[in-house]
Structures are given as structure tokens and as C-alpha cells.
Design brief:
Layout lengths: L1 H8 L5 H13 L3 H13 L10 H29 L6 H27 L3 H25 L6 H15 L4 H21 L10 H16 L3 H6 L8 H4 L2 H16 L7 H23 L7 E3 L2 E5 H21 L5 H30 L14 H5 L6 H19 L1
Antiparallel strand pairs: 1-2
């Protein structure tokens, strides 16, 4: 009766949409009921985009597009200011700060477009960066008299990245042990003129590179591939723009469900929380922090770590609420805290490796910033727990909360 009344008021409203709007009111459960289809689909083997509530699609996409638009908008005046001549020391400092802001804005746009470029577009750029970081790690080992099989290790990691984009679990799960088996056989039989006999350090360093730079980061691709939305979902949010954009733009934006996926949205909010966790210590740790966190990285403080965790939790809770997660303050807050802790562990692990290798930076690819590994260390260990949280733990919260 109630559903018939709703349809009578708005005949054009789909039955599924009317039911989704009325169920929370009838049961008194609020947004938890609306989020159950999304969470149930996340826990299934084949994610169905139709199970995601329409309001969650809209609310999670609009902020992302808004951030990209604001970054582009504010990049124009900052670019002009960064090119203005500087006379005094104050002007020079202001120009440096303006350039840093401009760089951050453009990075925000580039990374956002990269995440929403599709699984294979994301994979191509990701594989290139991860391979460079892995080679920097192997180069540090070679400089310290360790001889890993760096070529085979890097190739194995690239294969793992490609397998992570597959929708066949058997393919994804088989590559890591197969890579390990082939690698150990090669190390046992290795006969190279300039390479001494294989040692325990050679074996452990090779496998550390495969695990740390291949297997663990590959979960970013698994997370990115979760839940492709139905074709045209994004453009259906802007029907007027769709009518004016022309057939070419419309075809590009509606051609693939893979461009804008549920996993891409989760990954965008996850990376944003990591950026917040990295920026917060600059205000809370380096300036005011006095309590050293760990000897491996003397500049890190407890004050900075706590500030980073709070920032990550706030961003993740916001994203969880917009994406329709159940109990968003709890699930989003815990998710942000988990990712912030894993990011710190990744950062400290690379710091430990650099200290062991007696180097300040992992490379010189980025002038003034060291190697690419110095910039990516906080992201290496985040993806795996993030993936399993979204895929396994998040569906369980519905049954726990109901």
C-alpha cells in the first residue's frame, strides 16, 4: 500500500528507487538498510553495480569531481603568482610556497584522473612507478655487496600487477607462489661470471623485493577493479551536460563501466586520507612534536603520528558516509586509522632499509626529494588491508549492527 502510494505520487519513479526510499522509513533502521545491498555485493564474488544505492553513487562521485574542479580553478592564480618576480627574501619564500601549492593542486588533478582512467590505464602507470621503486631497492642491495636476481624479481612483480586486474581468483592467487618457485630454482642454478655464489642474503633480498614491491602493492589494482558501475552512471548524474557535450564526449564517458568504479571511489578516498595523514604531521609533529616515535626515523614524533591518524580518520569517515557504508563514523574511522598505521609501517620499513644500506635517499630520480621509493614508501603496505577490509570486514558490519 505504501509503495503504491509512492508510485502514485511520482509515476516515473522506478519501483526499486521507491522501495529504497521507503524501506528505511518503514523499518526505522535509517541509512543502514540502504547500505546493505552495497555491502552484500562487496562480499560476493561478482560485484553487481546495480546493488549500489543511487544516492551513494551520487554522493561519492560529486565530491570527487568538485575537488578536481577546485584544484583546476585555484591552480590558475597560483601559477600566475609563482611566476611573479621576487625581490625580497619574503617574496622568495612566498613564491616557493606558492609553487608548492600549485604543484600539490596539479598533483591532485593528475592523480584523480589517473585513478579514474580505468583499470588498465591505472595499471600501466602503477606498474611503471612500482618497477622503478623496486629497482631502486635492488640497487641499494647491490651497492652493499648483495646480489639479488633483480631482473627476475622485477618481471615477477609486473606479472603480479597484471594478474591482479584479472577477475579470476585462481589467476591472482597462483602468480605469487609460482613466481617464488621459479625464483628459487633460478637462484639455485644461477651461474654468472661476475656474480659470486648465491648466499642467504641474496635469497632473502630477492624475495623481500617480490613481496614488498610486487605482491603487497598489487592489491591497489585489486581494490581499483572492485565493482564496475553500470555504463552511463556518471553521465546520468548530469543530463544537461550530457545533452550539450556532443556524441563524442558522451561516447567516451559512457563507453566503459571500468572508468568510474566503486573500487576507484574507495581508492580515491583512501589516498586522500593518506595525503591528510602525511600533511598533518608537518603541523603537529615537525613544528610542535617533542616525543620521538622510534629511533629508526628520528624526525617522527608521537604528536605527528596522532595528528596524522586523526586527519586520516576524519577524511575516511567523511568518505564512508558519502559512499553509504554502514555505521560510517565507526567503519570509516577505523578504516582511516588502519590505513594510517600501515602507511607509517611502510615508511619506517623503508627507513630501516636505507639505514641498513647507509644511504640517505633510495635514488636521485626526483631532485630534492630523493628516489621514487622515498615518495611511495607510505603506500606500499596500505592496499592489502584496505582491500580485505572492504571485501570481507565491511559486509560483516551489517550483520553485527542489525
Amino acid at each position: 500500500m505504501v509503495l503504491q502510494s509512492a508510485l502514485a505520487v511520482s509515476p516515473k519513479l522506478p519501483v526499486s528507487r521507491a522501495a529504497a526510499l521507503l524501506l528505511p522509513r518503514m523499518s526505522g533502521a535509517g541509512p543502514l538498510v540502504a547500505s546493505r545491498p552495497l555491502v552484500a555485493a562487496l562480499g560476493s564474488h561478482r560485484f553487481s553495480a546495480r546493488a549500489m544505492p543511487e544516492y551513494a553513487l551520487t554522493q561519492s562521485i560529486i565530491p570527487i569531481l568538485s575537488v578536481i574542479g577546485l584544484c583546476l580553478f585555484f591552480s590558475v592564480p597560483t601559477a600566475i603568482k609563482s611566476l611573479m618576480p621576487a625581490v625580497t627574501e619574503a617574496d622568495i619564500k612566498a613564491r616557493k610556497l606558492t609553487r608548492r601549492v600549485f604543484t600539490s593542486l596539479m598533483l591532485g588533478v593528475v592523480v584523480s584522473l589517473w585513478i579514474f582512467s580505468g583499470t588498465w590505464g591505472f595499471l600501466a602507470v602503477f606498474a611503471g612507478m612500482a618497477a622503478v621503486a623496486q629497482l631502486e631497492y635492488y640497487r641499494m642491495a647491490l651497492q652493499n655487496g648483495i646480489y639479488p636476481t633483480w631482473k627476475l624479481g622485477t618481471i615477477g612483480s609486473l606479472i603480479m600487477y597484471a594478474a591482479a586486474a584479472s577477475h579470476r581468483p585462481a589467476v591472482r592467487d597462483a602468480i605469487f607462489p609460482l613466481t617464488g618457485t621459479i625464483t628459487i630454482i633460478y637462484l639455485l642454478l644461477r651461474q654468472e661470471r661476475k656474480t659470486p655464489p648465491t648466499t642467504m642474503s641474496d635469497v632473502s633480498t630477492t624475495f623481500m623485493g617480490i613481496y614488498y614491491f610486487g605482491y603487497m602493492p598489487s592489491f591497489w589494482i585489486r581494490l581499483r577493479a572492485l565493482g564496475p558501475m553500470a555504463p552511463g552512471t556518471l553521465f546520468s548524474l548530469f543530463p544537461r551536460v550530457s545533452a550539450l557535450a556532443g556524441p563524442l564526449v558522451h561516447r567516451v564517458t559512457t563507453s566503459g563501466a571500468d572508468k568510474v568504479s566503486v573500487g576507484a571511489g574507495v581508492e580515491w578516498w583512501t589516498m586522500l586520507s593518506q595525503v591528510a595523514a602525511a600533511v598533518a604531521p608537518d603541523d603537529n609533529g615537525h613544528r610542535d612534536g617533542k616525543t620521538q616515535l622510534i629511533k629508526v626515523s628520528p624526525k617522527k614524533t608521537w604528536e605527528g603520528f596522532i595528528g596524522g591518524c586523526v586527519a586520516a580518520m576524519a577524511v575516511s569517515a567523511t568518505g564512508a558516509s558519502l559512499m553509504g557504508w554502514p555505521l560510517p563514523l565507526f567503519t570509516g574511522g577505523f578504516y582511516g586509522l588502519m590505513c594510517a598505521v600501515m602507511a607509517l609501517i611502510g615508511d619506517l620499513t623503508v627507513s630501516l632499509l636505507k639505514r641498513s644500506a647507509q644511504v640517505k635517499d633510495t635514488g636521485s630520480l626526483l631532485p630534492g626529494h630523493g628516489g621514487l621509493l622515498d615518495r611511495l614508501d607510505s603506500y606500499l603496505l596500505v592496499a592489502a588491508p584496505a582491500y580485505f577490509f572492504v571485501k570481507v570486514l565491511l559486509p560483516l558490519t551489517v550483520g553485527w549492527a542489525s
